[in-house]
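Deliverable D5.2: sample structural annotation.
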Amino acid sequence: FLNIEVQCKGSMADTDWRAFLYWADSKKKEVYEIRGYGNTPDQATKDAFKKFNDNVALYSEYHGKWE
């Protein structure tokens, strides 16, 4: 796990939040992203961590090289 970013799709009063969890594969030197969604920043963050813990391979998308 490297970091997590939380963003609101619209205005701050909106209920469409996304969390982008980034993690790295140290052997392949690659970074992957898992997206979480929710009605609040907390829900989106928890969704991303749940996906990370439940099945990291299923939910991960290649994001770039880890340098």
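Annotation notes: The mean pLDDT is 94. The chain has one helix and four strands.
The annotation will be released with the project's public dataset once the embargo ends.
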